Amino acid sequence: MARYSGPRAKISRRFGEPVMGFSKALEKKNYPPGIHGNSRRRRQPTQYAVQLQEKQKAKLMYGLLERQFARFYQEASRTKGVTGENLMRLLESRLDNTVFRLGIAPTRRAARQLVSHGHITVNGKVVNVPSVVLKPGQVVGLTPAARELNVVKQSLANHGSKVAWLEWNSDKWEGTFLSHPQRDQIPENIKEQLIVELYSK
């Protein structure tokens, strides 16, 4: 499936935050890209534009295309509870995102590549589908070959942030998906209610 492969620094400037991990671009140019990006005369965006931008930000942040994102939303709307919060829980429960959260990979894009190349196991079996949604109690591990990769070693060494719904065992090179996260535990700056309003139209 195709993925966004354009300039990621421009994406960060467009949203005013490091959506795809490029914070240095904001330090140099903290205004949107384009010839009118630095202009003070900018029209107030419509409500639809604000909702659409929030959805685009979530898609780019988690590395999804429209059809796949829509499927996650449909599943979230069928699940009991608040649709927006269900959506965020599903996105965070994806295998590639879990690999990123555990610190095995420095970015979600790198995590997706590790999964696609067969370097990640779930309950001891190799899984090469990044969109798999994990269930509580499942264990995410590394194949012996993956443990020797410099990118993995460096990422684990530099990994500072921890999340409450995951537990990493450095001796076994594996992490446990303890539970689906609550919305207040998810650090991403996404206004999911705007996405719900957009799809509800």
Question: What report would you give on this structure?
Answer:
The chain is α+β, with helices and mostly antiparallel strands and about 200 residues long. It folds into three domains: about 1-45, Ribosomal Protein S4 Delta 41, Chain A, domain 1 (Orthogonal Bundle); about 50-90 and about 190-200, Orthogonal Bundle (Ribosomal Protein S4 Delta 41, Chain A, domain 1), CATH 1.10.1050; about 95-180, RNA-binding S4 domain (Structural Genomics Hypothetical 15.5 Kd Protein In mrcA-pckA Intergenic Region, Chain A). About 40% of the residues lie in helices and about 10% in strands. Strands 2-1-3-5-4 form a five-stranded antiparallel sheet. Helix 3 packs across helix 9, helix 5 (about 85-90) crosses helix 9 and helix 6 crosses helix 7 (about 110-115). It is globular.
Main traits of this protein?
201 residues; alpha+beta; Ribosomal Protein S4 Delta 41, Chain A, domain 1; Structural Genomics Hypothetical 15.5 Kd Protein In mrcA-pckA Intergenic Region, Chain A; 3 domains; 5-stranded antiparallel β-sheet; 9 helices; 5 strands; 42% helix; globular
Terminal-residue CA separation: 28 Å
Mean pLDDT: 86
In angstroms, what is the radius of gyration? 18 Å
Shape: globular
Q: What's the CATH H-level homologous superfamily of the largest domain?
A: RNA-binding S4 domain
Number of strands: 5
Helix content: 40-55%
* Strand line-up in the sheet with most strands: 2-1-3-5-4
